[in-house]
Specification:
Belongs to the TRAFAC class TrmE-Era-EngA-EngB-Septin-like GTPase superfamily. EngB GTPase family. The protein is α/β, with parallel strands linked by helices and 201 residues long. It is 31% helix and 21% strand. It has a 7-stranded mixed β-sheet, with helices on both faces. The chain is globular. The structure holds guanosine-5'-diphosphate.
């Protein structure tokens, strides 16, 4: 079960290695309303991610520690850290990520030593969005490992979904997009196995 660590609104707030035991960190990134908190909820099976939606925390990076086991068997050292980043692109699609995002996001992506994988969420129900392309391009340029997941896959039929995934891959210039649904749990097991591979690395 997850433990909420803290809500960071400045570089100086980021949890230290002593606090995270230096375990790999997974960052979740996406436009507002893409389904980020729903995905985190289905991954960790709790309402913990709603913490991120409470006022004052929506423009923060919210850190969670995930532990294997429960109760007495629960280890002190977490297996993974989740970092839930603020949603972007709500007000105006044309606005660039950097002008809209709090200034501490870029230092986080550029410098966070324990950041092992960025999960980029894109909505399979809408056309490819320029600000998503911008984020993915930034991650490629900074050589950050990333995995693009296509959210809300339950809302469209198999054929429409395949076409949407193809268009997203083409526009964002990525080899893989994993379709997922927080509603039906489609793709969630596959995503977990990718996260565990990072944890065991
Ligand atoms: P966030 O702003 O990225 O955290 O997005 P939320 O998780 O709050 O979801 C935004 C909206 O999309 C809500 O109305 C959710 O119920 C809906 N939603 C999220 N994930 C899914 C999904 O997998 N399937 C469907 N059908 N709706 C979803």
């Amino acid at each position: 079960s997850p433990v909420f660590l803290l809500s960071a609104t400045d570089v100086s707030h980021f949890p230290t290695k002593a606090k995270t035991f230096d375990v790999p960190e997974i960052a979740f990134l996406g436009r507002s309303n893409v389904g980020k908190s729903s995905l985190i909820n289905s991954l960790i099976g709790s309402k913990e991610a709603h913490v991120s939606s409470t006022p004052g925390r929506t423009r923060a990076i919210n850190f969670f520690a995930l532990h294997e086991g429960a109760g007495e068997k629960k280890k002190i050292r977490p297996t993974l850290i989740f970092a839930d980043l603020p949603g972007y692109g709500y007000a105006k699609i044309s606005r660039s990520i950097s002008s809209e995002w709090p200034t501490f996001i870029e230092p986080y992506l550029a410098n966070r030593e324990t950041l092992a994988l960025c999960i980029c969420l894109v909505d399979t129900n809408i056309p490819p969005q320029p600000n998503d392309t911008q984020l993915i391009t930034y991650l490629k340029q900074s050589q950050r490992p990333y995995l693009v997941v296509g959210t809300k896959s339950d809302r469209i039929s198999g054929n429409v979904l395949s076409k949407s995934i193809a268009a997203l891959k083409r526009e964002h210039e990525v080899d893989e997009i994993l379709p997922i649904s927080a509603k039906t749990d489609a793709g969630i097991k596959t995503l977990w196995s990718r996260l565990m591979a990072v944890a065991e690395d």
